[in-house]
């Protein structure tokens, strides 16, 4: 130990002498200050949060919702004069002035005193900080990197995107997802050419800015193989070989967390996969999920069984990671799930609709309660009719619309599938896939300044509910740093073959 201490001391000495007296700015530390991972002291009463990112957002593009106009401060904008031409991109900028460019010294003056380069004192909504020169240098070095340059997977003409599938995804549904996405991309690329032509004719309007951003999509299928513990390396290798800008749609089973971790590590937007695992509680800033996933539904079902004193249920479903995952959630509530136990007091089914109905038809299940968790399979009227008459009592827990409302919702998708000659593709898979692709398309079109992934996700925080609703999941909307788009499930209570639905929000 003592030896190691001596070596460290020696190193410190060497470093101190070899460093120039003006220390080089540390961009990563600047980022940590910006995001609040390294604390900064404010002057006077501190507002709710002193982290720049809390108000100016992770992208540095500011925020105009909620009555407080927070201007963009990403370097590309801050260190340039704000003129009328630039200002017109920001909906709230009329409220605030045209100003000269900042430099490091004037930024320091503003942060310490609240006074801008042109002598305006900003309101207290912008905190004042006690910063030393190193903090200021690191912070401005980081601001200079924000919204700068082009993110990986993107160039002037193309945007490369990948869709990820995991080995436990149902092969038929995986292929249905892929076919839908490929047709969507082909259709979109056809339109982009048309719109590129229009852009030449249009005058210098906001519209033109949007058309200029149409890019040809290049779609890749990243099919993960083997154990989940190896997925991180497979994804990293793909991304380093030929990077993509975003992941879109995708199909997965009991595990999706390694993909979400990849998205956080590489700062890629990962939009709306159809995975049984869902997004869990907090999938991270870069991952957007339809739903919290099977754990949430299993917990809702387990609490119903428990409330009726049903402590032992027979499990219907393919043995494997998904069954194990659900078994774990039920065990947590004191309900044991066992395979093929004739003595069990209830049945918990993870089967897809056709298999579930077939299993109900086989054999006599007495009047045992059946809790059905169809996961990412949507239940239209036909699917309900096939199983309800054989369910004397029990529950269905599903995150999606069901019955007539679902059938109505899927009409648009069925028309699209017919137009594409894809009638054999299950409409629920196609609908969720089209939803993911449309969300990415809308996000890309609305990026006015830079294509940083952070900005894309922040735009969705404001605009997700305005994107065309294709998917069977209801009420898609997210707030700042929320990444689960539909925040609950329906619990249907089944009695004598009839079902009574109630929406239950996630806890
Ligand atoms: C509590 C919210 C909040 C936090 C935290 C915050 N800001 Fe601000 N900031 C604002 C608001 C609001 C304004 C606009 C004030 C006005 O002009 O009305 C602003 C303005 C600015 C401006 C002036 C931009 C211009 O165009 O003149 C800069 C620069 C700035 N902030 C940088 C920072 C930095 C760097 C941090 C972190 C060290 C930070 N802000 C933290 C809310 C915040």
Distinctive features:
disordered N terminus; binds heme C; Cytochrome Bc1 Complex, Chain D, domain 2; 19 helices; Rossmann fold; five-stranded parallel β-sheet; alpha/beta; 507 residues; seven-stranded mixed β-sheet; 3 domains
How would the blueprint of this fold be written?
Elements: H1 2-18, H2 27-35, E1 41-42, H3 52-56, H4 75-78, H5 84-87, H6 104-113, E2 129-130, H7 133-145, E3 158-165, H8 171-201, H9 206-212, E4 216-223, H10 231-241, E5 246-248, E6 251-252, H11 257-266, E7 270-271, E8 274-275, E9 287-288, H12 294-307, E10 312-316, H13 321-332, E11 336-339, E12 346-349, H14 353-361, E13 369-372, H15 381-387, E14 393-398, H16 403-409, H17 411-419, H18 427-445, H19 453-463, E15 488-495, E16 498-505
Parallel strand pairs: 3-4, 3-5, 5-7, 6-8, 7-9, 10-11, 10-12, 12-13, 13-14
Antiparallel strand pairs: 1-2, 14-15, 15-16
The structure holds heme C.
Describe this structure in words.
By secondary structure, the protein is an alpha/beta fold. It folds into 3 domains: 23-145, Cytochrome Bc1 Complex, Chain D, domain 2, CATH 1.10.760; 158-291 and 426-473, 3-Layer(aba) Sandwich (Rossmann fold), CATH 3.40.50; 294-406 and 490-505, 3-Layer(aba) Sandwich (Rossmann fold), CATH 3.40.50. 41% of the residues lie in helices and 14% in strands. The protein contains 19 helices and 16 strands. Helix 12 (294-307) crosses helix 13 (321-332). It is elongated, with a radius of gyration of 27 Å. The model is unreliable at 1-21 and 199-211 (pLDDT under 50). Bound molecules: heme C. Residues 40, 47, 49-50, 52, 54-56, 68, 70-71, 73, 78, 82, 96, 99, 107, 110-111, 116, 122-123, 125-127, 129, 139 line the site of heme C. The site of heme C has 27 residues, from helix 3 and helix 6.
């Amino acid at each position: 130990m003592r030896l190691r201490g001596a070596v460290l001391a020696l190193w410190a000495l060497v470093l101190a002498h070899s460093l120039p007296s003006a220390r080089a700015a540390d961009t990563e530390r600047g980022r940590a200050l910006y995001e609040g991972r390294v604390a900064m002291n404010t002057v006077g009463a501190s507002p709710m949060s002193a982290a720049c990112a809390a108000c100016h957002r992770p992208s540095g593009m500011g925020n105009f919702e909620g009555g407080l106009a927070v201007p963009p401060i990403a370097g590309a904008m801050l260190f340039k004069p704000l003129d009328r031409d630039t200002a017109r991109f920001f909906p709230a900028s009329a409220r605030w002035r045209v100003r000269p460019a900042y430099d490091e010294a004037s930024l320091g003056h503003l942060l310490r005193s609240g006074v801008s380069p042109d002598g305006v004192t900003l309101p207290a909504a912008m905190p004042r900080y006690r910063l030393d020169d190193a903090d200021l240098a690191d912070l401005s070095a980081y601001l200079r990197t924000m919204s700068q340059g082009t993110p990986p997977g993107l160039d002037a003409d193309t945007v490369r995107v990948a869709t990820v599938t995991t080995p436990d995804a149902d092969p038929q549904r995986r292929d249905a997802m892929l076919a839908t996405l490929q047709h969507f991309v082909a259709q979109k690329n056809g339109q982009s050419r048309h719109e590129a032509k229009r852009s030449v004719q249009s005058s210098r309007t906001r519209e033109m800015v949007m058309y200029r951003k149409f890019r040809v999509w290049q779609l890749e299928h990243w099919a993960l193989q083997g154990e989940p513990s190896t997925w991180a390396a497979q994804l990293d290798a793909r991304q380093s070989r030929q990077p993509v800008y975003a992941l879109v749609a995708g199909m997965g089973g009991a595990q999706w967390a390694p993909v979400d971790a990849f998205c956080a590590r590489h700062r890629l937007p990962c939009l709306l996969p159809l995975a049984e695992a869902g997004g869990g509680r907090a999938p991270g800033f870069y991952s957007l999920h339809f739903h919290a996933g099977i754990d949430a539904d299993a917990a809702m079902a387990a609490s119903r069984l428990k409330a009726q004193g049903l402590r032992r249920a027979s499990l219907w479903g393919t043995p494997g990671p998904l069954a194990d995952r659900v078994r774990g959630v039920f065990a947590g509530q004191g309900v044991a799930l066992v395979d093929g136990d004739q003595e069990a007091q209830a049945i918990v089914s993870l089967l897809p609709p056709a298999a579930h109905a077939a299993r109900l038809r086989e054999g006599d299940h007495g009047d045992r309660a059946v809790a059905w968790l169809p996961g990412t399979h949507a239940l239209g009227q036909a699917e309900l009719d096939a199983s309800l008459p054989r369910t004397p009592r029990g529950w269905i827990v599903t995150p999606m619309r069901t019955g007539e409302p679902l059938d109505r919702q899927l009409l648009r998708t069925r028309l699209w599938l017919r137009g594409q000659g894809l009638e054999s593709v299950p409409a629920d898979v196609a609908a969720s896939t089209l939803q993911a692709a449309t969300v990415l398309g809308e996000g890309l079109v609305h990026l006015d300044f830079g294509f940083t992934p952070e900005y894309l996700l922040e735009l969705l925080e404001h605009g997700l509910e305005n994107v065309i609703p294709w998917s069977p999941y209801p009420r898609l909307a997210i707030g700042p740093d929320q990444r689960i788009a539909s925040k609950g499930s329906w619990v249907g209570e089944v009695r004598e073959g009839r079902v009574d639905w109630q929406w239950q929000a996630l806890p």
